[in-house]
Amino acid sequence: MPKPYIVRLVFDRRHRSAVLWRRGGVIGGITYRPFYPAQEGAPVFAEIAFCAVSQSLQVSGFGTRLMNWAKHFALERDGCTHFLTYADNNAVGYFAKQGFSKSIALDRDVWQGYIKDYDGGTLMECAIHPRLPHVRLPAMLLRQKEAVESQVRLYSRGHVVHPGLHSWRDGARVAVTPESVPGLLDAGWRAEDAARERRDFQLVVRGMLVDASADNRQRYMRDLLARLQREPDAWPFLKPVPVEEVPDYYDVIKDPIDLSLIEARLESRAFYVTLEIFAADVARVFANAQVYNAADTFFHKIAIKLYDEFQDWLSSGIVYTS
What is the pTM of this model? Predict the structure, then answer.
């Protein structure tokens, strides 16, 4: 809008303005004009003629605060029940977040001829609810959230925080049973339920169909890992990423893993008590590579390729019997 036109809008005595003042200067404002239709019982509405917030502060919540105060003033001082405005393409999203809609509920006879028509603009409407504390809306929503959560805590233990498992951080190879995980039993886990959900299966180990005993699972995982290590493209994943070559790697990847660590865990015979745990560690090797490296890089592409191959090998060696 041209500056002279904005000045004329702001200083028009028929208009009202809400202004945001911060650190000695104006950072935003809304100018609206209330209309009092002649029809008896017709709602009082206002047209927003001007709305702006300093560009550098448009994602800081000031626009929402400004609109909430404009609604408060329009309701309390002018008795308005609706806002109407023509929004350009760049402002439709902002107005939608403030409760405006492209669906106009007011009868056309109420507002037609009162507000200005703008070419290229989208007419939007917002109902100003008389019982909503617009300027205290965030605090009200926070209190409602706290009230709901306090009631949920009476029937749920989701808010209880249990200590985690730390033995593995010290390098110890300690077998952990599900029952020993803090909070798992309280959450409803039962061994008999897990057993019912578990499907029986056999393994194909070196061309032979064998039972999925602990020893056979161990041989199966070792064969899978060895096959993965022999792949020509697996060399970036064989050892930990050297910090001398990639200084920021461990700033980005908070849970690093490589195939040598998986091999050490296999040798302990205590870490991979299920195939799922083993598969999850292998998946993390390649997931970390995809997180750190851009999609068009060699490392990202071979991570996807190797993981797909590993999934095929893993599934082809499992034969479900129930």
Answer: 0.52
